[in-house]
Amino acid sequence: MSQLPDPESLRLLVLVGDVGSLSGAAAQLGLTQPSASKRLSALERRLGLVLVNRTRRGSQLTDAGRAVAGWAQRVLQEMEGLLTGTEALRTKRDAELRVAASMTVAECLVPGWIGELRRTRPELYVGLQVTNSEQVPDLLRSGAVDLGFVESPRAPAGLSARQVARDRLLVVVAPGHPWTRRRRPLSVAELVAAPLVLRERGSGTRETLDQALRKAGVGEPQPLLELGSATAVRNAVIAGTGPAVISELAVEADLADGRLVSVAVEGIELRRDLRAVWASGRVPVGPAAELLAVTRRRGKKA
Prior knowledge:
Layout lengths: L6 H13 L2 H8 L3 H15 L4 E4 L2 E4 L1 H32 L1 E7 H6 L1 H11 L4 E7 L4 H6 L5 E4 L8 E15 L14 H6 L1 E5 L4 H12 L6 E6 L2 H9 L5 E4 H10 L3 E3 L7 E9 L6 H12 L5
Parallel strand pairs: 3-4, 3-5, 7-8
Antiparallel strand pairs: 1-2, 5-11, 6-9, 6-10, 6-11
């Protein structure tokens, strides 16, 4: 057999056996009797069997027809199970969104984005994994998440990306730190010579700082502490531990309230793009596409 029977022909055969009439079976399927007769004849030719005896009193299945109808019934039940199962998976997918975001984006932007999305989709479940920018691509490539957000200087290789916000890194200190009394900006050399409270390696913030220092032609920063989140860095600086380089998004309220002071630095570029990323070759659909639309509407310009 070069081609499998189509499901509607199998359904017609089963109905002929149930109602004992080709015209009755055709009516239940919304077919004309001539169309049903042609379909049944095509099925017989495809299988090489006589399946139905047509008489003036009605249509009866042959022995071969009853056997084929029994097998067809099981095939149709399995197909129904397939359709029901895929619909359940589709419904689950449409009510679920899995996101991975780098620390700063997760702390400062994602809650607002998700909040706006859920105002129009209150039934939506959003699972958020908070990690650093280095780990987000791995989660996407493994299929563990549908959409990611990173703050690294470059878009991750092998993924599609779109800018969703702008940010910049600031040098911040606690009030009373000697740098707050400076009349001139810090030089890059002074910055790199000072022990700093830093994000851990692998974070977008640390990668942005390291790359900017390399472009400025100076060495790596000196870690006083290496911490795993912008909140931890912020708290350490407020406690007077030392200066830090941190996202402006993470300290806007502290700068406005005077808990932290920003110190100007010359000779270094610390602006960066924040990006949404997803599997290359795929177009975000459903909740992932809806969340991307929210980021466009709420795009923040530093």
